[in-house]
Amino acid sequence: MRILLLAQFFPPDYGGEEWHVFNLANALASRNHQVAVATQRVPGMPDEEALPSGARVYRFATASMGLPGVYTTGRAHHPPVPDPIGVRELRRIIRQTRPEVVHAHNWSVNSALPLRGHSSASRQFGLVLTLHDLSHVCATKRFMRNGAPCAGPTMSRCLPCAARYYRGPVGPFTVAANYAMRQWKDRAVDHFVSVSSAVAKGAGVVGFPNSSIVPNFVPDAVLENRFDAEQTGVELPLPEDPFLLFVGDLCEEKGILTLLRAYDSMPPDRPPLVLIGKRRPDTPASLPDGAVMYFDWPHEHVIEAFRRCLYAVAPSIVPDACPTTVIEAMACGRPVVATYTGGIVDIVVDGESGLLVKSGSADELATAMRRLGADSELRAHLAAGAYTRAKSFTASAVVDRLEEIYRRVAPLRGDVPVPHGVEVREPA
């Protein structure tokens, strides 16, 4: 099958969504699909390249990339409406790759909608949309308001919240545009994929006949210990003694300040704390004794850090949709101390594969961290449970489900090759 994955960012830009698309492209190519990835242009990268798996990457310009003073994160996100240059470039890429399915991720779908045709008979490709966050209903994508989880989208909540989050008139425009585009997407998208039950509920797609929950995943190589960072010959600056590990954006929405308060309250003989991730405007400038922070590590080095740590900590305050870092830690056989929020509860089973605590509570977090650090039998029990649980979040467990969705939405054609080992069914 010819599949075009559409994402606003792609490695070497990295994050959970970016690595998911990268892993999906490689997994689909290994199953004999013809895979292309369309993503926004980034400096220093070619406009077209082939991945070792055979998937091809097409990088294209967008009008939004040239808008001054709009973005505060250093990356030009896709707008909540069709981007005029993006639509033109996608039309060119679609003509070149002739996909039977376009699988878009979050707001990148907005520039694919005008290319669909006005009726089911005129549609040349099936359209799948994966929701990696709550951008389908939330202009800021986070479902957070005044530092706490939002009760739900309403104009009275969304307009002031977006005005604080974005600059100038961007906030009100984003709210209005996102609301209008939601109506279009609800009609035009053939199948919605939510990465967790929390996303499906928050996005309002629970009960849709064309909606499924399919989580993020990691390559089987991570679970099978075939993802070897030591082959690079790089000496990682990790403690020789057992250490605790946080991986993610280094900001309070990911619980960094809560984690540092919890860590600072632990006894002086506590293990070292290693924090790895992206610098953000609220990244702490100082750390407690025993803590060290590293920025922008290569992915294989992050995996090696997971393998060496005593346990991982994921103290998110924002409702994380389906944090890949939690899955990676578990696939490396490490228990996780995490919070009861978002999609984490779909991944971590409290007392079986990790420990869950109330988000934002430094006291509960510190108690769980001390408990896990002091009890080697509990760590071994949770590590075994984490590894077993992670098997449900690997490519071999997840990609079959996406292939079934592709078969249901793809136009009926006689030239579609059947992926190996897959039962043929007529599209619904």
Could you give the distance between the termini?
17 Å
Helix content: 25-40%
- What's the level 1 CATH class of the largest domain? Alpha Beta
CATH topology tier name of the largest domain: Rossmann fold
Q: What amount of the residues lies in strands? A: 15-25%
Distinct helical segment count: 13
Based on CA atoms alone, the radius of gyration comes out at: 21 Å
Order of helices and strands: EHEEEHEEEEHHEHEHEHEEHEHEHEHHH
CATH superfamily of the largest domain: Glycogen Phosphorylase B
CATH architecture of the largest domain: 3-Layer(aba) Sandwich
Read across the widest sheet, the strand sequence of neighbours is 3-4-2-1-5-6-9-10
Total strands? 16
| Structural class computed from helices and strand pairing | alpha/beta
Rough outline:
globular
Number of domains: 2
Task: Describe it.
- It is a single chain.
- The chain has 428 residues and is an alpha/beta fold.
- It folds into 2 domains: 2-217 and 395-409, 3-Layer(aba) Sandwich (Rossmann fold); 221-392, Glycogen Phosphorylase B (Rossmann fold).
- It contains 13 helices and 16 strands.
- The protein has helices spanning 16-30, 84-97, 155-165, 170-188, 197-203, 220-223, 256-264, 299-308, 324-331, 344-347, 362-374, 376-390, 395-409; strands spanning 2-7, 34-40, 48-50, 56-60, 101-105, 126-131, 144-145, 148-149, 191-194, 211-213, 244-247, 273-277, 291-295, 311-314, 336-339, 354-357.
- The model is unreliable at 413-428 (pLDDT under 50).
